[in-house]
């Protein structure tokens, strides 16, 4: 089940008057990763002052008891519901013109599966479900199904890049294997992908002893990705490292921030730095440094500490881990590491995300100077796409708590 801290995301607040006036009307827009929908909460500045972030805890009180059709909730200054609305016009969300599989040439060598054949078992996190399906052999397969239900341009690009990268990676004992492209059933549009499900849990679990061989595996994997494939993961952290219960090896996943050469490259998210922070957190249990925005971090603060106090069971002395790390970091930092990365012999590349054909449908965008309607093509809101009769894939679903209650009654 999705962690409570990860379930909601505030997408902003609109004020209809001075934000200093407690009686000014306010509208808050909150995305619910459990139900995969946006909910508008209406109230006043008294309840929703700027930068107070009050909308999420207020919505969390009653969201699981709302009808799935409700799009907006009005609350009084005590946070109690006074009115609800099922009008879809209450919510402005970006339309996603999911790409028809026929237009995604780079994916045509992938196996596919229809969305209707996936059975949800659990909700692992934002945009990731645990699912099962029957393979062609009739044997059930457990998979992690990853999808992007948000129409923001950066998320569409990240989803496309991760899918193309994962399907192109060579098999590796320390990377979660790619499985299939997921297509919706009506028009065979690409809505996500599956990877093999690894049930062993991540290294974020502080009760799991940490092995020296896992550090060796991680550094070897980073060298392979960076210096052979020209890929930087850019989000190496304990939460993105699983332990395979069958092989007892670590497996890296979540490549949605990855760079290929200069494409998507972020100098503040270097993988060597990521390994340093990861090992420090695994040994000490201190994640305070990784909570700092990555562009504001100074890795030398951690790297040059005289001692890393051990707060986790280890199979070797802390000094063994640190000495190995120091030797590896020195090797990576010697010479021109960036040029070695940029000149990687087996760089993986893929095409830019295509423009969805849906966006060629003109929409009204104001008027010209002579009063004529200005027609444009491109991104639009879901309400606009609906009025134009465009195909919309609906992700919304009941809250997991309601499904569990129904299962228990059965």
- Tell me the major beta sheet: 6 strands, mixed
**Can you tell me the CATH superfamily of the largest domain?**
Transferase(Phosphotransferase) domain 1
Estimate the mean pLDDT confidence: 95
**Strand fraction:** 15-25%
CATH class of the largest domain: Mainly Alpha
- Rg is 24 Å
CATH fold type of the largest domain: Transferase(Phosphotransferase), domain 1
| Proper CATH architecture of the largest domain | Orthogonal Bundle
Number of strands: 17
Helix content bin:
10-25%
Shape: globular
Low-confidence stretches: none
> Given the structure, what is the number of helices?
10
Query: How many distinct folded domains?
Result: 3
Describe the strand arrangement of the main beta sheet, using strand numbers.
Answer: 6-10-11-9-8-7
Amino- and carboxy-terminal Cα gap? 20 Å
GO molecular function: ATP binding; protein serine/threonine kinase activity
EC number: 2.7.11.1
Catalytic activity: L-seryl-[protein] + ATP = O-phospho-L-seryl-[protein] + ADP + H(+); L-threonyl-[protein] + ATP = O-phospho-L-threonyl-[protein] + ADP + H(+)
Protein name: EKC/KEOPS complex subunit BUD32
